[in-house]
Amino acid sequence: MKAHFIRTASVALATIFIASAVQAQERVVNVYNWSDYIDESVLADFTKETGIKVVYDVFDSNELLETKLLAGGSGYDVVVPTAPFLARQIQAGVFQKLDKSKLPNLTNLWPMVSERLAKYDPGNEYAVNYMWGTTGIGYNVAKVKEALGADFTVDSWDAIFKPENAEKLKSCGINILDASDETFAIAMNYIGKDPDSKETADLEAGGEVYMKIRPSVRTFNSSAYIDDLANGDVCVTIGWSGDILQAKARAEEAKNGVEINYVIPKEGTYMWFDNMAIPADAKNVAEAHEFINFLMRPDVIAKASNYVQYANGNLASKDLLDPEVKDNPAVYPPEDVMAKLFTISPYGSREQRVLNRVWTTIKTGS
Description:
Helix content is 47%, strand content 16%. By secondary structure, the chain is an alpha/beta fold. The strands form two sheets. Strands 4, 5, 6, 7, 8, 9, 10 and 11 form an eight-stranded mixed beta sheet that branches. Strand 1 (28-34), helix 2 (40-50) and strand 2 form a beta-alpha-beta unit. Helix 9 packs across helix 10 (200-213), helix 10 (200-213) runs parallel beside helix 17 and helix 11 (225-231) crosses helix 12 (241-254). The longest helix is centred in the first third of the chain and has 24 residues, at 2-25. The radius of gyration is 23 Å and the shape is globular.
């Protein structure tokens, strides 16, 4: 009986040891990215090729991501901040420099995008571009025509920012991105001010553009608006290019009779960059580099772009994109439109407090 007990205990201990060893050898990468922002088969392909499990969480605002990063111990290995937030977070020391020896696919990157990104990340030491795009107007063609008239052309920010137009659109629903940094820049550019201004008077003037139309705005969100637009629950939105095109695709797939269009207004708009970076306290640094390098493979990032309908920072991927993505001026704007796109620098703590105060007043309507 004693011998049996010893053999049984030995087997049990061996089983525990083997299980612990297997658990110790399991490789994982914890990713925090924007919602509706990747073809899930890309993640499955990565795991199949590398054996690394992807734990994938999503967010819908840079502020939420920043709060987690600044608090420390986020638990993530790869995160995807937008460029002005990236710059501020680099200054705060929340990221580690990339080990470029582990990123051979850097050779595939698009010099134009890398050069513009260097404004936020000098030397491109901390981040690699994932996707880039524009912030424009997405709208329900039939409902906007009904509200503003058959002869009205949606080619200007006037469609939303003129109070008389917003009032007409109120009944079918207006959404504004809950992304104050870029929405203020757009408003300041619209009224002839420097979109990158950090002056309190200019920020307040940009805020006044929204206060004038606030009674007509139904929602402020940066994720649910995709389905709201696709389902006909809102008729116009300030939104990100790829999100609008996703809404268009969902409406077409549902065959619900909703026709969605996206325009870059003639006054110009914000050009943004979403970028992959590794937090300073990441636990799985080797796996993070493997994940980023995988996404820089032309065939992989092309698959992601085809799904989300955003441009990416990988020049080698362009020939692998679906024609409806590569040849779509809403995704890859022509040169004359590119010339009207602007970027913005990070907000300092003082300017951010002003921005937050004004934006909160706008959203609450008080």
